Amino acid sequence: MAKTYPEIDAQLEAFIKAQPVFFVATAPLDPQGHVNASPKGLDTFRVLGPKTVAYLDIFGSGVETIAHLRENHRIVLMFCAFQGPPKILRLHGRGRVVEPHEPEFAKLQTHFPIYEGARAIIVVEVSRVSDSCGYGVPLLKYEAERAELRAWCRKRGEKGLKTYRKEKNRQSIDGLPGVSDVID
Asked: No. of H helices and E strands in the chain?
């Protein structure tokens, strides 16, 4: 069943939109560095064109994806059907980080709902679109989005998020640069 596609067409975009969770994977160049895989949810993913996608990166305890993209731009996004017919879709590409202080952020932000704690938008130029069967992926029932992340960001407020960013998001677990220092 595995198939590659020249681009993200309307059918693939509909599949992407139907998935309540997606996964992001990146790795540093150093073979001793840590590979990262992160689940993402909320209403944070957009197809911007047949070979361009983006997602809103909201505060978290780590900054691996941002650090790896700054170093080497390699990224893969994976969508799994947990309901309905089985399918796994992977988007391989080259990603870049757009932070809130950069002029492009405001234009990209118009594609997403406003989330407190948005620390970047990750833009990916897709070089490979492929699917696989997904027969081994379990059927799961989606209940709802979790409210904890939004509440966590609201509780800290703008000043608290800046402090958290300085303390926790300046570098990756391997010491690579994370978010920029511009927001001081």
From this structure: 4, 8
CB 82 within 8 A of CB 144: no
User: For residue 74, which of 119, 122, 107 has the smallest C-alpha distance?
Assistant: 122
Full-model pTM: 0.94
Q: How far apart are the two ends of the chain, measured CA to CA in Å?
A: 50
Residue 141 DSSP one-character state: -
Within 10 Å of residue 116's Cβ, how many Cβ atoms?
17
Structure tokens at 33: 């560095």
Which residues fall within 8 angstroms of residue 100, CB to CB, at 6 or more apart? 118, 119, 120, 183
Nearest Cα to 178, choosing from 164, 165, 161? 165
Torsion angles phi and psi, residue 31, rounded to 5: -65, -15
CATH 2.30.110.10 fits 3-168, yes or no: yes
pLDDT over 80 (residue 9)? yes
